[in-house]
TrEMBL record:
Annotated ranges, domain PRELI/MSF1: 1-176
Protein name: Protein slowmo homolog 1-like
Organism: Phallusia mammillata
One GO cellular component term noted in the UniProt record for this chain: mitochondrial intermembrane space
InterPro entries (alphabetical): PRELI/MSF1_dom, Slowmo/Ups
């Protein structure tokens, strides 16, 4: 028996903002069980798609995993490492991520897939499609354990979505703080003054050069003898 489930969620933000937040999702206070991430491969293909692979380290700490640890004698509360493969297609506006744990594979396998695309009805919103597949093996009561783990995964999915919202708000606050900073205004004023001074200096140099050229021309006009004729053979 395999636990399989689907879910959808609509973000009231454009696809670009949601994808940026998804890429910067960890760490965030909504998902403290995620200990860290490490990108170990990233490449851009001929079609402009960005392919990435990273390791996500987390802890499966909940009542079900604690029960499983006592029931089967395996400590599932230790750090779990998963490999996540993602494809970001900016042309088609699609961001797909697939992950699978690579420890405890002899007992439990959790496959998760997330896809972010613009909402067909509202281009300023983003649709997240999420799928879970939980498979238990070499254990007693596999059906019960799969259902327990799958239900837990679904319930914690809302935390991940809250994490996306947290990052979006954090990015917005960073932009607002930078644009409203007095230092930014001072830098802009300095840049404006510098540009004005440079333009004035160039204008003064051009004026002096023009006056000098005018004087030289007048001197040649008034004194034709200053012009040396080429020697004749």
């Amino acid at each position: 028996m395999v636990f399989l489930s689907f879910d959808e969620h609509l973000f009231n933000h454009p696809w670009e903002k949601v994808v940026e937040a998804a890429l910067r999702k960890y760490p965030n206070p909504e998902t403290p069980n995620v200990l860290g991430t490490d990108v170990y491969e990233r490449k851009l293909d001929a079609d402009g798609k960005l392919h990435s692979k990273r390791i996500i380290s987390s802890i499966w700490s909940n009542s079900y995993t604690e029960f499983m640890a006592k029931f089967v004698g395996i400590d599932f509360t230790k750090t779990v490492h998963a490999i996540e493969c993602s494809v970001l297609d900016p042309k088609e506006k699609s961001f797909k991520l697939s992950s699978k744990n690579y420890n405890f594979l002899d007992y439990i396998v959790v496959d998760e897939t997330l896809t972010y695309t613009p909402d067909e009805k509202d281009p300023n919103s983003t649709l997240l499609r999420q799928q879970w597949k939980v498979t238990c093996k070499n254990l007693s009561f596999t059906g019960f354990l799969e259902n327990a783990m799958g239900t837990t995964m679904m319930s914690t999915a809302s935390k991940g979505r809250q994490g996306i919202e947290f990052v979006i708000n954090q990015v917005r606050e960073e932009v607002d703080r930078l644009t409203s900073s007095p230092a930014i205004g001072e830098m802009q004023q300095i840049a404006t003054n510098t540009l004005t001074n440079v333009q004035q200096s160039i204008g003064d140099m051009g004026k002096k050069w023009e006056e000098s050229l005018h004087e030289e021309l007048q001197e040649f006009i008034n004194n034709p003898s200053l012009i040396t004729e080429p020697a004749r053979n």
